[in-house]
TrEMBL record:
This is Cytochrome bc1 complex Rieske iron-sulfur subunit. It comes from the Bacteria. Residues 249-340 form the Rieske domain. Belongs to the Rieske iron-sulfur protein family. Iron-sulfur subunit of the cytochrome bc1 complex, an essential component of the respiratory electron transport chain required for ATP synthesis. The bc1 complex catalyzes the oxidation of menaquinol and the reduction of cytochrome c in the respiratory chain. The bc1 complex operates through a Q-cycle mechanism that couples electron transfer to generation of the proton gradient that drives ATP synthesis. Residues 1-19 have a biased composition (Basic and acidic residues). It comes from Paeniglutamicibacter cryotolerans. The keyword Kinase does not apply.
Length: 357
């Protein structure tokens, strides 16, 4: 008994087994909670450019060099766009596209990286804390003006003419390529509807034979089996003045289905020949080439954004972002059994545009 009493005296009386009596659980109000002290801002660590004038000058030259790279990129775009002109073969097309892409990339990248490098090496990097205060219109205006002046002062743009001038040059030149590209959409310059007319009409016309791409071999209706697909261009395309542009508008897909599966709209009864149909290969979303045909489902698929067209329903859009069916080319056969066009497309091919009727 004496031993048990001594143990209770040393460990406390836990005979009831309750946390309230044992003291093992803290209760509200017991003890005092110490408040966390505001640690404040960390000590400011100066950069090399803040203490070494040579490092500061070197950073300034680096920023200017990045802006100059942007200017060179824009000039490279101009060279590719105007000097190379209109390429005539695939090698020139690849060269021009590469120069246009790289020029635009360096034009944008030089400005972006230059501004980031400027901010990280030359602009003040100290942290500040500002208390919220009541907004007063006049005081707010004055404060905004003060902030702008402070920003101009901290950037050093007034006292760093090399950075200022190269930045102005890079920003001034960067948008010009876009302006020329939009302006050059109408290459003829004859009238406001010239580009619309170019998109509305193709080389297809009454009696023009359907020939295989790229061999130029005419196609007989008897050669087109159910489930087969032909990539087709108009006969005489190789003699066109602008082969690439004409082909981009006129290329079609030729397929044959069971005529009983075709759902033909009124007025289009003679647009197909015994289940053989021809549709523009240009997707109505953004103009990618539609090239995948699912024989079992009779679906045409655009690989760019997965727009899906139902061939049995006159290429109606059943999935994806495309907004309209593919344009259908009316076809028939001539006296020799070769497939020929009845006319041009009855609507402009490809994506939508403002003037499209």
């Amino acid at each position: 008994m004496n031993l048990e009493k001594r143990m209770r005296d040393n460990m406390g009386d836990h005979s009831h087994g309750s946390p309230d009596d044992s003291g093992t659980v803290a209760k509200a109000g017991q003890g005092s909670l110490e408040k966390f002290q505001d640690p404040g801002l960390p000590p400011h660590r100066k950069r090399l450019a803040d203490t070494d004038p040579r490092a500061e000058k070197r950073a300034e030259r680096q920023v200017a060099l990045l802006f100059i790279i942007s200017i060179i990129g824009t000039l490279s775009f101009f060279i590719a766009y105007f000097v190379l002109g209109r390429p005539e073969n695939i090698s020139q097309i690849r060269l021009q596209n590469s120069m246009l892409g790289l020029g635009t990339t360096f034009a944008m990248l030089g400005i972006g990286v230059g501004i980031v490098h400027w901010a990280k090496t030359l602009m003040p990097d100290h942290e500040i804390s500002e208390l919220r205060h009541e907004i007063r219109p006049e005081a707010d205006r004055q404060e905004a003006e003060e902030i702008i002046n402070t920003v101009l002062e901290e950037t050093g743009i007034k006292r760093r003419p090399l950075i200022r001038n190269t930045l102005i040059g890079a920003i001034a030149l960067a948008p010009i390529p876009a302006i020329f590209m939009f302006r050059d959409l109408d290459r003829t310059g004859k009238n406001a509807n010239a580009m619309v007319d170019q998109l509305r009409h193709t080389m297809w016309d009454t009696g023009v034979k359907l020939v295989r791409d790229p061999s130029g071999t005419p196609i007989k209706a008897a050669d087109v089996q159910i489930g087969s697909v032909f990539h087709v261009i108009p006969d005489g395309l190789d003699k066109a003045e602008d082969v690439l542009n004409e082909k981009a508008k006129a290329v079609v897909l030729l397929m044959r289905l069971d005529p009983n599966k075709l759902k033909v709209s009124p007025g289009r009864e003679d647009w197909n020949y015994d289940g053989i149909v021809a549709y523009s290969k240009i997707c109505t979303h953004v103009g990618c080439p539609v090239a995948l045909y699912e024989q079992q489902t009779h679906h045409l698929l655009c690989p760019c954004h997965q727009s899906t067209f139902d061939l049995t329903q006159e290429c109606k859009v059943i999935f994806g972002p495309a907004g309209r069916p593919l344009a259908q080319l009316p076809i028939t056969v001539d006296s020799e059994g070769f497939l020929v066009a009845r006319s041009d497309f009855h609507e402009p091919v490809g994506p939508s545009y403002w003037e499209r009727g």
